[in-house]
Amino acid sequence: MTPGGALLVVGDVVTDVVARHRGALAAGTDTAAAIRLVPGGAGANVACWAAHRGCRDVRLLGRVGAESALWHERELVASGVRARLVVDREAPTGTVVCLVDAAAAAERTFLTDSGASLRLAPGDWSDALLDGVARLHLSGYLLFSASGRALVAVAVASARARGVPVSLDPASAGFLAVLGAGRFLELVAGVDVLLPSRDEACLLAGVADPAFAAAELSRRIPLVVAKQGADGALVARGGAVRARVPAPAVTPRDTTGAGDAFTGAFLAALLGGAGPEEAAAEGCRAGALAVGRVGGRPPRNDPTAEARQEASDG
């Protein structure tokens, strides 16, 4: 591990179509909604939040289509991320339609076309990517394609050879259920930190109680930080929950990317020297900020641009 080194994130970069509606969708006809096109992707969001929360050197490896590569690169650079985007000439950038019900605690449903993100592969990796890196973070979406799984194996092996700790966020309870909990846990062998949501932790452990799930997972992975939404986070090590970290109270507008915000801030805090409990508290604060915004990215240090976004968000 390189003291004071960089954070390298490997994962998905996608275009989010966020549709905020109120109440049930009207099947077979129109439902009024406020719709915005914003940059997203769990991996990209984590990188941006880590930079926003104080990590000075954040790098991202992702794969995008040629049609939007320049836009995504500009957006990442503007957020303080050093982007290494592989341009795919055969597949478009992934697209996620985020249906956000403003009348139901801003809960969201995703329609996902992973596009070029699913084609990230070992050939896109180089051991030199770890030069100067203190932590490697992997998006769980990588595990939902054969090429992504192969990349995870290569990246984890490379990081372990250099003594670089590895974290991973399972990313999607829906895709995780299809992959299978046993298969997932086999694939993440060698990971030091697991950052599941409540649903993901329960699915992986095969239990309904989130605290018991986090504790059980920490028997296999050294540190488990289970995100609990409005209930904060659980920090588990050695088969037991060691801390319950509360989240700030907030009125949600869009929960898209809240878990990514938590993860980015958590990793930035660890790189800054914080312990797991303090880092989890930073993650909770970032998650609270994220749910008050539309889209999965942090605010920019540009008051004019922020004012325009607030006006368009309504």
From TrEMBL:
InterPro entries assigned to the protein according to its UniProt record, in alphabetical order: Carb_kinase_PfkB-like (IPR052700), Carboh/pur_kinase_PfkB_CS (IPR002173), PfkB_dom (IPR011611), Ribokinase-like (IPR029056)
Pfam families from the UniProt entry: PfkB
Keywords: Kinase, Transferase
PROSITE patterns the record matches: PFKB_KINASES_2 (PS00584)
GO molecular function per UniProt: kinase activity
Compositional bias segments (type: Basic and acidic residues): 299-314
Residue ranges of domain Carbohydrate kinase PfkB in the record: 7-299
Top-level taxonomic group: Bacteria
Annotated spans, Disordered: 291-314
Family assignment from sequence similarity: Belongs to the carbohydrate kinase PfkB family.
Protein name as catalogued: PfkB family carbohydrate kinase
